[in-house]
Amino acid sequence: MNLNGKKQGQTNPKNCGGKNGDSSNRENDDAQLKDSLMASVITEKPNVRWDDVAGLEAAKQELRSAAVLPIKFPELFSGQRKQRRGMLLYGPPGTGKSFLAKAIATEVESTLFSISASDVTSKWLGDSERLIKQLFKLAREKKPSIIFIDEIDALCGSRDAPGANPLTLGLKTELLVQMDGVGNDNEGVLLLGATNLPWTLDPAVRRRFQRKIHIPLPDEKARRQLFKISAEKMEVPLGKTDYIELASMTDGFSGSDISNALQDALDVPIKRVQNAGFYRKVQEEGKGLFMPCEESDGGAIKMTFIDVPRGMLKAPVVRREDIFAVLRDVKASVSQEEIKKCMEWTEQFGLEGA
């Protein structure tokens, strides 16, 4: 029994009518499956440019070859030269795999399906396979298209692994059939998978990804670039030596670790407002505003944020020292064991993306 009180693998009651109702029920159900999948289509550009992705030049080049060039210059892919049909991005958590997919969605004029395991799994027997079939059917109808499946290991774990769920076997089989394009033309459809655990993938699924690209932790140069991109957006004045020092402090950090630390730095002014015991009045655009300050500052008034009238707060900015202070307390989230396993898998099956 599952949490809904239904037996796993139970047949969908909508598909249990008599012969006359089978066809119409199936058509209606397929339409519902199609509608649910349409919700996964990215309709607005994520506004992530290739330049926003620090480092990973090899990965960006491979993705341009697979997703950008075939759409912009289809004449390059004729005769025996074919567009890649499947690419796998793998590496430790937080290294930019999903960010790369967003860059593709921004730069490429194609339909992007952003899929998670929950989008294509169902408690009803047979519906998961039909969801996969409908997904690829939709992608072919709307090509050029990209199907991005995040955490693809949740769908395509090895069938021989201990504890493997036999009820997902049909889903994996259907995915393999659709990836091969048996009986269908998959030209113009790119399957882009992402995983933190490539070694758990079923060998048959692994084989169908023509390119398997390792997205590693950012090196020192990439970390400097990450801080530069973020500091400009945060309007924090940092110099060249600051970027070098920050990159040195964050050895072993993922891009996500750095992003989270900078988010903590953005929260420092909020804490400054909450903890301040003195404020001083400043003029901005002819309006008197209250700004947190030290007792020794000229014009300091003993008060707390509770005493500041609504709409009269001058929000303090993030300072250089705020970023350094936050980073001294932050730890890397990726273990050496994870890094080692990704490198070993790369030596056997993958390509370096940095």
TrEMBL record:
ATP-binding recorded as keyword: yes
Keyword match Nucleotide-binding: yes
Annotated GO MF terms: ATP binding; ATP hydrolysis activity
Residue numbers spanned by region Disordered: 1-30
Domain AAA+ ATPase: 83-219
Any GO BP: endosomal transport
Sequence ranges of Polar residues compositional bias: 1-14
Gene3D superfamilies membership: 1.10.8.60, P-loop containing nucleotide triphosphate hydrolases
InterPro entries xrefs: AAA+_ATPase (IPR003593), AAA_lid_3 (IPR041569), ATPase_AAA_core (IPR003959), ATPase_AAA_CS (IPR003960), MT-severing_AAA_ATPase (IPR050304), P-loop_NTPase (IPR027417), Spast_Vps4_C (IPR015415)
Keywords from the UniProt entry: ATP-binding, Nucleotide-binding
Similarity section: Belongs to the AAA ATPase family.
Protein name: AAA-domain-containing protein
